[in-house]
From TrEMBL:
<feature type="transmembrane region" description="Helical">
    <location>
        <begin position="18"/>
        <end position="37"/>
    </location>
</feature>
<feature type="transmembrane region" description="Helical">
    <location>
        <begin position="289"/>
        <end position="309"/>
    </location>
</feature>
<feature type="transmembrane region" description="Helical">
    <location>
        <begin position="98"/>
        <end position="122"/>
    </location>
</feature>
<dbReference type="InterPro" id="IPR045691">
    <property type="entry name" value="DUF6056"/>
</dbReference>
<feature type="transmembrane region" description="Helical">
    <location>
        <begin position="401"/>
        <end position="422"/>
    </location>
</feature>
<feature type="transmembrane region" description="Helical">
    <location>
        <begin position="162"/>
        <end position="182"/>
    </location>
</feature>
<feature type="transmembrane region" description="Helical">
    <location>
        <begin position="358"/>
        <end position="380"/>
    </location>
</feature>
<keyword id="KW-0812">Transmembrane</keyword>
<dbReference type="Pfam" id="PF19528">
    <property type="entry name" value="DUF6056"/>
</dbReference>
<protein>
    <submittedName>
        <fullName>Uncharacterized protein</fullName>
    </submittedName>
</protein>
<feature type="transmembrane region" description="Helical">
    <location>
        <begin position="235"/>
        <end position="254"/>
    </location>
</feature>
<feature type="transmembrane region" description="Helical">
    <location>
        <begin position="134"/>
        <end position="156"/>
    </location>
</feature>
<feature type="transmembrane region" description="Helical">
    <location>
        <begin position="321"/>
        <end position="338"/>
    </location>
</feature>
<keyword id="KW-1133">Transmembrane helix</keyword>
<keyword id="KW-0472">Membrane</keyword>
Length: 504
C-alpha cells in the first residue's frame, strides 16, 4: 500500500455521496429522538388486550403468540378480515413495554426494503453503480419519510403503521425477491427466493386491500409479459400470483368484513357501487397526483430525474410504447384508491391518512417509472444514423449526467428553502420543534400520569385530565368525555376498569 495513500484527496464524487448520506442520516435523528415519548392509543388497546393479559400472567412468548393467533381468529370472525394485520396488531409493543421502538422499526423496515429493492433493480438489471443506487435511495427515503401525509399514523402509531407502512416495506422486499428469482443464479437461490415470495404474497394480501390489489395487478401484468415471451419464469410468477390471490380470498371472505361494513354504512349516506368507486379512484388519483407535487417534493423528483435519465440513456430497452406504459402505470396508481373508496367512501381519504401514506409512496414510485420511461423513449426514438451524427452532443449530455452531486446539492438547497411552503408538517422539523418546546416530554408525562391512575387497583372509575399538548408526530387519538365511547371502553378493558373518561 502506498504510504501516502491516506494523504490522497477524497474525490468530489465520493465527497458528494458522503454529504448526501450524512444529510439523510441527520434527518433521521429527530425522528428517532422523539420516539422515547411515543404512546399507544385507540386500536392499540383493542388488539393488545388479550396478549397483554397473557404476557403479564405467563411471561411466555409462545403463549403470547398463541393468544395473538386467537385474537386474529376472533377479529376475522367478528370485525376484520385482514388476518395478518390483526395478528401483528395483537403483538402491540406496549404489551412488552417497548412502544418507543415503534418508529425505529417502521423507519428501518422502509430503509432496508427500499435499498434492497433498488439494489436488485438498479444494479442487477439497469447496470447502475453503487453511488447511483445510494443517491436514488436516499432521495426516495427523504421524500417518503419527511413528506408523508401523516407521520403519526405512518411511523408512530403502531396499529396504523404496522398495517400499512410495514406492509408496504414487505411489498418492496416481495418484488425484490421476484427479481432475484428471474436472475441467473444458483437453483437453490432462485427457488428459495420464489418460496419466500409466495409466503410474502400470501401475508401481504392479508395485510391490507390496497397493497394486495396493487401487487396483484402488477403480478398479473408480469405473468402476461412472461407468458407472451415464453419465459421459463412464467410458471413461478403465476404460482406467486396464486398464493397472493389465495390470501386475498381468505381476507375478503371473512365473516367479520360484513359486520364491519354494516357498522360503517350507518355513517355513510350511501356506499358507492364498484363502477362508481373505480371512476372516483381515477378522479382522486389525479387530484392527489397534483396535490402532492409540492415544491420540495418536486425538487426531489428533479434529482431523481437526473439520475434516471442517466440510467435510461445506458439502457438497451426499446421504450416503444410510452403512451400505453404511462396510462397503465397511472391505472395501477389509481387502483390503490379503489378499496378505501368502495369500503368507506371518498371521505376516508381525508380522515384515514394512514391509507394515504402508502398511496403517497406509490405516487413516488409512479414518478420514478414515468421519468425513466419517458427519458428512455426520448433517447431511443432517434434513428441510429442520427445518433452517430450527434455523438458529440450526447457525450456532453452524458458528461453532465455523471455529476449527480451537483444536482443533489442544488435539489437539497431548493428543498430547504421551500420547506415553509409545505402544507403538511415535515416530519423531522415537527419532531424537532416538539422536542425543543418541551411538548413531547409534556405529552409523555401526562400519559404516564394517566397510566398511574389506570394501574391503581383501588380506582374502578378512572377520570383523567385531557392532554394539554398534542405533538404532531405523537398524538393520534384519545378517549372522550363519554365513557361509552369505543375508545374509552377499550382502555377500560385494557386496564381492567369499570369505566374511563376525560374529566369535564
Amino acid at each position: 500500500m502506498n504510504r501516502y495513500a491516506l494523504l490522497t484527496p477524497v474525490s468530489k464524487k465520493n465527497c458528494g455521496n458522503f454529504l448526501i448520506v450524512l444529510t439523510f442520516l441527520i434527518t433521521l435523528l429527530p425522528i428517532f429522538s422523539i420516539s422515547i415519548y411515543d404512546q399507544p392509543s385507540a386500536d392499540d388497546y383493542v388488539y393488545g388486550l388479550l396478549t397483554r393479559q397473557t404476557w403479564e400472567s405467563t411471561g411466555s412468548v409462545f403463549q403470547t403468540l398463541l393468544t395473538a393467533w386467537n385474537q386474529m381468529v376472533h377479529s376475522y370472525m367478528t370485525w376484520d378480515g385482514n388476518f395478518f394485520a390483526t395478528f401483528l396488531g395483537a403483538l402491540q409493543p406496549s404489551v412488552f413495554g417497548l412502544y418507543h421502538w415503534v418508529p425505529v422499526v417502521m423507519v428501518l423496515s422502509v430503509i432496508f426494503s427500499t435499498f434492497f429493492f433498488l439494489k436488485i433493480l438498479l444494479e442487477n438489471y439497469l447496470n447502475a453503480d453503487r453511488n447511483t443506487t445510494l443517491i436514488i435511495g436516499c432521495t426516495l427515503l427523504v421524500l417518503e419519510l419527511q413528506f408523508l401525509p401523516s407521520a403519526v399514523q405512518g411511523l408512530y402509531w403502531f396499529d396504523g403503521a404496522i398495517s400499512y407502512t410495514f406492509i408496504y416495506a414487505m411489498s418492496l422486499t416481495f418484488f425484490a425477491l421476484l427479481l432475484i428469482y428471474y436472475q441467473k443464479r444458483p437453483v437453490r437461490h432462485k427457488y428459495l427466493s420464489l418460496a419466500s415470495a409466495c409466503i410474502l404474497g400470501f401475508l401481504i394480501s392479508g395485510g391490507n386491500f390496497i397493497s394486495s390489489l396493487v401487487n396483484l395487478i402488477l403480478l398479473a401484468a408480469m405473468s402476461t409479459v412472461l407468458w407472451y415471451r415464453k419465459s421459463t419464469h412464467c410458471f413461478g410468477t403465476v404460482l406467486v400470483l396464486v398464493f397472493s390471490l389465495t390470501g386475498l380470498f381468505v381476507s375478503a371472505l371473512a365473516p367479520g368484513n360484513g359486520v364491519r361494513q354494516a357498522d360503517t354504512l350507518r355513517t355513510l349516506m350511501s356506499q358507492p357501487s364498484p363502477v362508481s368507486a373505480v371512476l372516483q379512484s381515477f378522479q382522486y388519483a389525479g387530484q392527489y397526483f397534483l396535490q402532492w407535487m409540492s415544491v420540495p417534493v418536486s425538487a426531489g423528483i428533479f434529482l431523481l430525474s437526473v439520475l434516471l435519465v442517466k440510467l435510461a440513456y445506458k439502457s438497451h430497452f426499446s421504450f416503444r410504447y410510452p403512451f400505453v406504459a404511462l396510462v397503465l402505470a397511472f391505472c395501477v396508481f389509481a387502483a390503490g384508491f379503489t378499496p378505501p373508496i368502495y369500503a368507506l367512501g371518498a371521505g376516508s381519504l381525508i380522515w384515514e391518512t394512514r391509507i394515504m401514506n402508502i398511496l403517497y409512496f406509490n405516487f413516488l414510485w409512479l414518478w420514478g417509472f414515468m421519468l425513466f420511461y419517458i427519458s428512455g423513449w426520448l433517447f431511443h426514438r432517434r434513428p441510429k444514423h442520427q445518433n452517430s451524427q450527434n455523438t458529440m452532443g450526447h457525450n456532453r449530455l452524458k458528461k453532465s449526467m455523471l455529476r449527480p452531486a451537483f444536482y443533489s446539492s442544488a435539489a437539497l438547497v431548493l428543498i430547504i428553502l421551500t420547506l415553509p411552503l409545505v402544507k403538511t408538517p415535515v416530519t423531522s422539523l415537527s419532531a424537532l420543534q416538539s422536542l425543543a418546546d418541551g411538548s413531547a416530554a409534556q405529552y409523555a408525562l401526562e400519559a404516564n400520569e394517566r397510566k398511574e391512575i389506570y394501574q391503581n387497583q383501588t380506582i374502578n372509575h378512572a377520570d383523567v385530565l385531557a392532554y394539554t399538548v398534542k405533538p404532531y408526530v405523537l398524538y393520534y387519538d384519545d378517549i372522550k368525555t363519554d365513557k361509552n365511547d369505543w375508545r374509552n371502553i377499550s382502555v377500560a378493558r385494557y386496564y381492567n376498569k369499570d369505566s374511563v373518561a376525560i374529566r369535564n
